[in-house]
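Hi all, long-time lurker, first post. I run a small reading group and we've been trying to get comfortable going from sequence to structure in the token notation. Rather than ask abstract questions, I figured I'd post a concrete chain and ask someone more experienced to write out its structure so we can walk through it together at our next meeting. Sequence below, copied exactly:
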Amino acid sequence: MKLDTIAVLGGGPGGLYAARLLKRSHPGAEVTVYEQGVPDKTFGFGVGLASRTQRNLRLADEESLDSIVAAAHGHEMSMRVGDSEVRLAHGELLAIGRATLLAVLQKHAEAAGVELRFGERRAVAELDADLVVAADGISSATRTELAGEFGPETAEGEGLYLWCGTDFALPRAIFTPVVTKHGTFVAHAYPYAADRSTFLIETDEKTWRRAGFDVSTHETPNGENDQPSLDYLQEAFAETLQGNRLIGNRTKWLRFRTIRCRHWHTRNVVLLGDAAHTAHYSIGSGTKLAMEDAIALDRAVLAAGTLDDALAAYEAERRPAVEHLQDIAERSMAWWDSFPDRLSMPVEQLMVAYMTRAGKVTVDRFAESAPQVAVPGLAAFGGVEAGEVPSPAAVTEWILDRPLASGGHQFPCRTAPEALRAAAGTLPVEISVRPWSPEAAELITGLPPAAAYWLTGPGDREATLDRLDVGERIRRATGALLVADVPAEFRAVAAGALASERVDLVAFTG
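-- Answer (accepted) --
Happy to help. Here is the structure in token form:
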């Protein structure tokens, strides 16, 4: 397939990377990036690049990745609650300033022969190009203009968050809560340069209102900083900041928007990155998804005989992976929204809960990769000394074999006896709702009192994870014994839920 002209709307990382890859694959084509902003002004602070993303970028374009890595800042991660802190050594976690990343990608796009046109806003109707790549972000004008064809849907999260930064490098990435007189705020912070760190801070709506941030949000014009919030949070996180200031960049409280589209392409126009989809920041950045979209788009266009076939192949390849990540991201978002409810756990056990929160990492895998954290966390769950926790290969069965004392009853292991299902005081509850939905809240508030709730439902993986997440909500709301049916093939998932105190007992089905 021969392309003579390619127009890219949006000069963010995804758009620049797509332009470079497409120009390298179609050297005879005229490739132009239209960006409404100017090169030296950008929104945001640091961008994280996980090891898997780095591997994908290296396979697609080693030269540009080498430049990114050279300008990036490596770090480990940690979690601190009060005076207790745990660390996870990880040699492949990198972060880079957004402005620095853009400068690197701009240089490599131009080196490939891409024309960059800044300060220009273009609509699809104004362009005469064989292919139009709409990488124009979460507020995509292209997606809005062609909404009838793309079919976008937007869902807002319950919590609120804001992005800010500071002018010193944290020693490592850190997740840490601070309890103020108004409620709990949680920081996700990481260094991205020798003298810079990103701070993302989130809270629930009630705390946000009690602190007066509903007023400051309303009074802060778009494009300016919510200074009252920055001043408050700078004081609240003074220990983590080590006396340094919080810096804003159009910083204002937001609710995370999860965007899905029924279609990612129409005619010769294709959506890429946040224009097509978003996933909660707690599982990785939109930058990662956008650049990986660019790789898939370039590969599809290069291989196909017609543009229609190419765009269909791109969407067919990327949609399952993106939707899987969006499912994981929704679970992660809900976990962070309810993070303050777990602060009674020892921090090592809390880290186990964090790593297994979305079903992506099993407890045995975490025990193998980070025994210095997982072992004390599992010991806290089991009420034993760390030396009694077995090797990672035996952890799943060890968790299932832990005894439980609850409500005057003694259980020799965490597999529920079948007699409990029909016992007086046990209420069966079929779960067919998403755990963070209004319907789940209604279900929980409408439950009659019971000594034990036994959760049932479909046997697929997503439904099982939903059931375990709803179980945690019921368990914390009622204090009752929580049992969940889990297909036998998901024993490791069940073990992670038990060690994280999502449920008390499980019953294996199938």
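A couple of things your group might point at:
Residues 54 and 65 are 7 Å apart (CA to CA).
DSSP finds 20 helices and 24 strands in the chain.
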